[in-house]
């Protein structure tokens, strides 16, 4: 049974479950369509405080080389210096600096996002989906979130002009999070 009620008993330390979570992104390609991708290797922990959400924290580390857009040629390009420069900057990190509860299920988490050695603040809108105990006795919580950023703010500058006007890759990137986390014993 899943609950969307904020139960203070859920307060505690949680570990991100990569096999049941998605950390993804969307970028406009050639001004006409969206390309979706994500990262397959990441880890994260958080302290959730359901009595006082402002005391909640989160840290996430993403392995850049795990980028996956379902196109190996594009993924290889994303890993090189035109985009993420995975050999020089092997990780993307996020460390929260604040949490604000908007209503019963909606939150804003602010924090420092580091890509290619550039750290900038970002705000992620999260919706608390609920909590449940899985068949193995693990207490789980789920969140979905979104944020937007300008990739060039992080030194991800590659682009190509199109003959018809516009550019190959949008500056605006939408980050997408589907998170399942397991409470530590």
Automatic annotation (TrEMBL):
Pfam families: YceI. Residues 13-182 form the Lipid/polyisoprenoid-binding YceI-like domain. Coiled coil: none annotated. InterPro entries: Lipid/polyisoprenoid-bd_YceI, TTHA0802/YceI-like_sf. It comes from the Bacteria. Belongs to the UPF0312 family. This is Polyisoprenoid-binding protein YceI. It comes from Stackebrandtia albiflava.
């Amino acid at each position: 049974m899943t609950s969307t009620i904020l139960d203070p008993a859920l307060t505690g330390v949680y570990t991100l479950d990569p096999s049941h979570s998605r950390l993804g992104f969307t970028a406009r390609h050639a001004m006409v369509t969206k390309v979706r991708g994500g990262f397959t290797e990441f880890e994260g922990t958080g302290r959730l405080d359901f009595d006082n959400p402002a005391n909640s924290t989160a840290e996430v580390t993403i392995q850049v080389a795990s980028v996956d857009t379902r196109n190996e040629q594009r993924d290889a390009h994303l890993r090189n210096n035109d985009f993420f420069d995975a050999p020089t900057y092997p990780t993307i990190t996020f460390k929260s600096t604040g949490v604000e509860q908007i209503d019963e299920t909606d939150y804003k988490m602010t924090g420092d996002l580091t890509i290619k050695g550039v750290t900038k603040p970002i705000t992620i809108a999260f919706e608390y989906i609920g909590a449940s105990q899985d068949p193995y006795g693990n207490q789980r919580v789920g969140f979905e979130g979104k944020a937007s950023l300008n990739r060039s703010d992080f030194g991800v500058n590659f682009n190509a002009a199109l003959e018809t006007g516009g550019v190959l890759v949008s500056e605006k990137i939408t980050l997408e999070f589907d998170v399942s986390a397991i409470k530590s014993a």
